[in-house]
From TrEMBL, chains A, B:
Residue ranges of domain HTH marR-type in the record: 14-149
Protein name, per record: MarR family transcriptional regulator
Gene Ontology BP term (one): response to stress
Organism: Candidatus Phosphoribacter hodrii
Pfam families: MarR_2 (PF12802)
InterPro entries according to UniProt: HTH_MarR-typ, MarR/SlyA-like, WH-like_DNA-bd_sf, WH_DNA-bd_sf
Molecular functions (GO terms): DNA-binding transcription factor activity
DNA sequence: CAAATAAGATTGAACTCTCAACTATTCCCA
DNA sequence: TGGGAATAGTTGAGAGTTCAATCTTATTTG
């Protein structure tokens, strides 16, 4: 057993796949972001109000939402403040836990989601779904679920890893 | 044929795959970014010097590099300036086209890439490659190549789409 | 060939995100 | 039950990114 730490480089096909993932992913996100920018919001802003719109109460705890959209709590705080200024969300106290804040979608915000959703969906189709076979897409989804489960709880919402508090 | 524009929502499994892609992708990038942050650089900075290190001349035109790593020219200009301050790259005039700039990896920069590459690779393996079957990973790569080719030339490096210049 | 247009890159101001520090509340347990 | 630790969220300053305008050099075309 070689005890030395020789680097196990990626194989040629692995290398290629990894590059495609990184570059293609960046291109996709950018395209979607620009698509939404034409309607006055960014992809991550859309994710936030869209997630809220799917709750039957139309509200969610800040930290829960931060985890869901993979943003730091601090970032969500700032973004929520901006969204609040635009009238799309409001903060409500969370009864039962006075530390908590419920970010709540306003009717205006809900209207915005409904207006944007079909547009955004078209772009997701055009750039992603329609470019893949059903099987490819399903495999992609499964793969990313694997990735997610491996990373679950990897870092908390403010960037400190679980084992960072020694 | 219904001429109305009713929204064709994603099917349940499509929805699930898309969400996994978005969330898993964000988690992955974030994990890799943090992994590199521990060594003093961000993922996108690493991408830049890593791409340069693979050229036999160890240099690349700004715009070509910007396209490769999917950053706007402006962003690359700023980032290159910061990398230059750290001594990892230098700008050189591009003979043959006096508009051009060749971003060039310094020996120090090359050393940094060599130092970081194995670390980064381990993280890519741990969070992505090792979590997927060979077939899943290959399919993922192929899928993202499809996405890439669909988006190729979709927007230039400063964010203006090809058909934006009317 | 001169004017117009395009391409390569930069600039600086506005905006967004990160990081560390901080307040407040709740949880744990001795 | 009280005090330490963990959780929820915010803050502000610094770092990074975007956007539109600008400058310079190449290329096109009338």
């Amino acid at each position: 057993m070689a005890a030395h730490s020789e680097t196990n480089w990626l194989t040629e096909p692995e290398q290629r796949a990894w590059r495609a993932y990184l570059r293609g992913g960046r291109m996709l996100i950018e395209a979607l972001d620009r698509g939404l920018a034409a309607h006055g919001l960014s992809l991550s802003e859309y994710e936030i109000i869209s997630m809220l719109s799917e709750e039957d109460t139309r509200q969610m705890r800040m930290s829960e939402l931060a985890d869901l959209v993979v943003q730091s709590r601090s970032r969500l705080t700032h973004t929520a403040t901006r969204l609040e200024k635009r009238g799309w969300v409001v903060r409500e106290p969370c009864q039962g836990d006075r530390r908590g804040v419920l970010l709540t979608l306003t009717p205006t915000g809900a209207a915005k989601v409904e207006q944007i959703a079909p547009v955004h969906l078209d772009q997701v189709r055009a750039h992603l779904v329609d470019r893949l076979s059903a099987e490819q897409f399903a495999t992609l989804g499964g793969a990313m679920e694997n990735v997610m489960s491996g990373l679950d709880g990897f870092a908390d919402s403010d960037g400190r890893a679980p084992n960072d508090r020694y």
